[in-house]
Specification:
With 252 residues, the chain is an alpha/beta fold. It has helices at residues 35-44, 58-61, 64-71, 147-158, 173-183, 188-202, 212-218, 227-233, 238-250, and strands at residues 2-9, 13-20, 26-29, 50-52, 74-78, 90-92, 97-100, 103-109, 118-122, 127-129, 134-135, 138-139, 165-166, 210-211. The strands form three sheets. The chain has a six-stranded mixed β-sheet, covered by helices on one side. A six-stranded mixed β-sheet has the order 7-8-9-10-13-14. Strands 11-12 form a two-stranded antiparallel sheet. A hairpin with a 5-residue loop joins strand 2 and strand 3 (26-29). Helix 5 (173-183) packs antiparallel against helix 6 (188-202). It binds zinc ion (ZN) and fe (iii) ion (FE).
Length: 252
């Protein structure tokens, strides 16, 4: 059994602690900072065995070195980014598996936000950690990739089961929702999600994890090949539709 604890840090990041109840193995996913993670570990009585990184940005790796020093944890991230993941011990690539005790994740290469970006998918736990590739009602900015790459990456994530819980790395959902309704104004699934998100954020509650099945229906970046989005934007090629949505979001 995989227990997942969400730790809010910085202005809008989430670090996740993953704890395998069978073996006690525990991982910190994308630790922006170390202090808050060490506090939760202590409160739970867990020993950190791994640090996992979806990509190299500082707000996902800033705690790597300090956590490694404090706990001896093994740092796991993309082999392709070995030169820029602080303290990397084990490089993984597309198709590899990662074992957190008795819980297994599949590594999915999802370039676009960065070249080496990966996602961790724990199929048995129905949990996806997409880093900055997929947000609820949004997706990451294209810092190092093309619209084609990102659209491919998002389609790969979209193929996972509807019941998958998506543990995004940022609480961006409300701002994403406000943008989403400008490009997909008549989508009832989006309107439902927006209402839910507004209600949650009124009391500063997290909007995550998101349910992938709901994202498939409501997230405009996962709908670039829908007839409705194509008609609304007056474009037919899904890559062009995706690129146009991303461009508008960049200036929203
Ligand atoms: Zn990032
Ligand atoms: Fe980030």
């Amino acid at each position: 059994m995989l227990t997942i604890e969400q730790i809010p840090v910085l202005s809008d990041n989430y670090v996740h602690l993953l704890h395998d109840t069978t073996t006690g193995a525990t991982a910190a996913m994308d630790p922006a900072v170390a202090e808050a993670v060490l506090e939760v570990l202590k409160a739970r009585g867990w020993t950190l065995t791994h640090v996992l990184n979806t990509h190299h940005h500082w707000d996902h790796t800033g705690g790597n070195e300090a956590l490694k020093r404090a706990t001896g944890a093994i740092v796991v991230g993309a082999a392709a980014d070995a030169d820029r993941l602080p303290g990397l011990d084990v490089g993984v690539r597309e198709g590899d598996t990662f074992a957190l005790g008795a819980c297994t994740a599949r590594i999915l290469a999802v370039p676009g936000h960065t070249r080496g970006h990966i996602a961790f998918w724990f199929a048995d736990a129905a949990a996806l950690f997409p880093g900055d590739t997929l947000f609820s009602l949004g997706c990451g900015r294209l810092f190092e990739g093309t619209p084609e790459q990102m659209w491919d990456s998002l389609q790969r994530l979209r193929r996972l089961p509807d019941s998958t819980k998506v543990y995004c790395a940022h609480e961006y959902t409300l701002a994403n929702a406000k943008f989403a309704r400008t490009v997909d104004p008549d989508n009832p699934a989006l309107q439902r999600r927006l209402a839910e998100v507004e209600r949650l954020r009124q009391t500063r509650r997290p909007t995550l994890p998101a349910l992938l099945g709901e994202e498939k229906a409501a997230n405009p970046f996962l709908r670039a090949d829908s007839q409705i989005m194509q008609n609304t934007l007056g474009l037919t090629d899904p890559v062009q539709v995706f690129a146009e949505i991303r461009r508008r979001k960049d200036f929203f």
